Amino acid sequence: MKTIAVTGGSGKLGTALIKELLQEGYTVVSLDQQRSSELRCRQIKVDLNDFGQVVSALHGADAVIHMAAIPAPLGYPYPYIFANNVVSGYHILEAASLLGIRKVVVGSSESSYGFAWARAPFSPDYLPVDEEHPQQPQECYGLSKIVNELTAAMFDRRNGMQVISLRFSMITKPEDYKDLSIRKPEAFKNIFWSYIDIRDAVSACIASLKAEDRGAICLNITSSDTLSDLPTVQLIEQFYPDVKDLRDAFPERTAIVSNQEAQRVLGWKPQHSWADSIN
């Protein structure tokens, strides 16, 4: 496995990921609708909604990391967001199948659980939120991620393709932390104070690329602590007092969205915290 195609290579995570892949000695091809002056790899301008373009662009790749998507239910009409994210995801997997590419990593989202963008806010069935928690989105973006995960499962059933869908929490850069409302817990209530440092998001992608014989699986990619200076127990008592099914003791600032399955399956563990940058 030498040549990796990265969709959305000009984006925030895509750029950081490609730089690290190059450092590790991979040959990388960036597939995006725009070129980036930051990237030192081959770049192909491609419309992922055009299947012929996707097949051509993926030719010669040994694996794919699919990060391209409209990243929130914002900025475009809802039907367009849904169609773009779902069709591009299908095209990537169908093209990979035709070309004999056996490994794909897909950017999914914790938004698939439905809490982040809910018009009618609701509480989780239990805490911590793990991969088995029901996904109940009320909008197009979270729904598009669920459809992509189901599509991945279909390709695994069809030909045994390994597709690891990474449910990223809010991706942050070290320079972001000083501007985030760490001491205003209400600011991140709807995402359960969940975040992932971009360096740890990159390492999760690469760990997924190296994983073997995992079929189609979905993993939460989140930090092990919360994006708050308050103890986690206090956050739960203050903002989610109706949740009675607590399946962890939540010492200190333990994360409310669990990354334990990602740690177990990938041998991965987040190494960075906002507290390291601010304190």
TrEMBL record:
<dbReference type="Pfam" id="PF01370">
    <property type="entry name" value="Epimerase"/>
</dbReference>
<keyword id="KW-0560">Oxidoreductase</keyword>
<dbReference type="InterPro" id="IPR001509">
    <property type="entry name" value="Epimerase_deHydtase"/>
</dbReference>
<dbReference type="InterPro" id="IPR036291">
    <property type="entry name" value="NAD(P)-bd_dom_sf"/>
</dbReference>
<protein>
    <submittedName>
        <fullName>Nucleoside-diphosphate-sugar epimerase</fullName>
    </submittedName>
</protein>
<feature type="domain" description="NAD-dependent epimerase/dehydratase">
    <location>
        <begin position="4"/>
        <end position="171"/>
    </location>
</feature>
<keyword id="KW-0520">NAD</keyword>
<comment type="similarity">
    <text>Belongs to the NAD(P)-dependent epimerase/dehydratase family.</text>
</comment>
<dbReference type="GO" id="GO:0016491">
    <property type="term" value="F:oxidoreductase activity"/>
</dbReference>
